Amino acid sequence: MEVKNEKKVLELSFLGVIMLIAVVVGATYAYFTAQGGGTGNINVNAGTATTDNLSFQTGSAISLTANQEDFGSGMGNKSGETFARATLTANNSTNNATRNYYVYLDITSNDFEYTTVDNQAELLLKVTAPDGSEVTTLGNLERKTSGGETGFDITESTGLITIADNYEIIASPSTTQEWQIEVIFVNLDRDQNANTGKSFTANLIIQEEAIVTNLGNFAEYVANLYTTDGVNDLYLHDGTGTYGTLEAGDNSYRYTGANPNNYVCFGSDEETCPADNLYRIIGVFNGQVKLIKSDYAGEGVLGTAQHGSTTPNSTYYKGSLSSIPYYYWSGSSSKQSNVWSSSTLNTSVLNGTYLTTLGSEWSDLIAETTWQVGGGTYDNLEYSNAQTAYNYEVGTNRANTTYTAKIGLMYVSDYYYGASPTYWSYPGYTSSSHPNTDGNYGAEYDYRAAINDNWMQMGANEWTISRYSVYSGYAFLVSSTGYVYGIRVDDYYAVRPSFYLESSVVLSSGNGTQQNPFRIVV
After folding, report:
1. Cβ–Cβ under 8 Å, residues 415 and 484
2. Mind spelling out the 3-state secondary structure of 309-352?
3. How confident is the model at residue 22 (pLDDT cuts 50, 70, 90)?
4. Reduced to 3 states, what is the DSSP secondary structure of residue 282?
5. For residue 437, what pLDDT band results from cuts at 50, 70 and 90?
6. pLDDT per residue over 218-259, tens digit each?
7. DSSP-derived secondary structure for 427-464
8. Rounded to an integer, what distance in angstroms lies between the CA atom of residue 38 and that of residue 81?
9. In whole angstroms, what is the distance from residue 257 CA to residue 260 CA?
10. DSSP readout, 85-96?
């Protein structure tokens, strides 16, 4: 009898230990990953009743292989499906919870290729959001219709594709969101034998943390977004395309139009890019990405050398500043030379205070650049079209006056080529004494007409780097209403620093939108 009692005591002690362990584990955060079966991976945020609980689940991997019989006429398409699910349960104290998560399609292998001369899609990705709607925009993927199906063309895609970026889930007290993913191999009812035996494999990943990956050389990545003129708002200026006679002819890739996805977060690694660290890509030139600050610069990055400020006109201004700082082009009212090397805006502010404020970690990514600062005349830059301005600023007719430094300002021709191609033939400014080539003048015949079709137009008077080459005291300005004109350098207007990144800079993430700007490896 005593032996039995001792056994019971031991059993009860063992149960007590197990219960104690259970209590301890229940009060901690656990992360689990599982593969196989009906679930690809599961993330469990396990907590007590006073903490929120967010868990994730995915379906099996998608695997497609193209066999000879799949290409038969009338055989139809072949597809694979999976899902990613997020469940959030609020704690019993507030009964309300909000979290965010990410969903990625990780294409681990894909050796499919295009088999038609017009690159008809052979693998299509379809994504259904938690609300049941089909996703129609997904990063830089092109949406196509092929074989009776419409989806994102991933025929030759590999690596990570962001499905949901920092997606919000709200529980009161519990909710589940599910993403449906389908990959379709399209039977085109034509010769697709080049894809016989080819295979595709992909997994879904869903988690709270963003995945940071290197997407390769930044300049090459941007250039590869170009396929034909206008796709992704990019134009190749090789002098032979649709707008060949109006192009710069320098083989650059330039962003054009009202609001392209060309945002870059520079100078900050915060999860949400601060407004003061948003830049935009002017284009890719000789293997280097050229940036310009998205909004006007202020004391925070340029220091206190400003002369004054202005309250922006809400009719034109596109930024977020309540007051726009203004600076002398020459650097001060007493230094009225329009020689860029003599401008303290250049030497002390842009290539002094501004670079120092960025810090060496970021400024080391900026290339030393030979800026063409000879400028041009009113006829060459103000009353001319984009190509003429380009030729006289930096092209074959340039004065070849240079200044080497990291930071500059935009060229007049940068501004002209930021507008939709329709306006590349327009002059920067017209008047009764300087009409356009058809003899017309006024706002509808010069760059004032492009004000809503030029992402570089920010809505305040802004300096360019180009001087008036005839008189020593003038430089060119982009006005708040869109036209270009020359004005005294001891006057004061807004500034947006511009620079080229080193050709070795690597892209880490982002799709170029203002909400998800491109990020680079620091």
Report:
1. yes
2. EECCCCCCCCCCCCCEEEEECCCECCECCCCHHHCHHHHHHHHH
3. very low
4. strand
5. very high
6. 999 999 999 999 999 999 999 998 899 999 999 999 999 999
7. -S--BTTB--TTS--SGGGSGGGGTTSBTT--SS-EEE
8. 12
9. 6
10. EEEEE--TTTS-
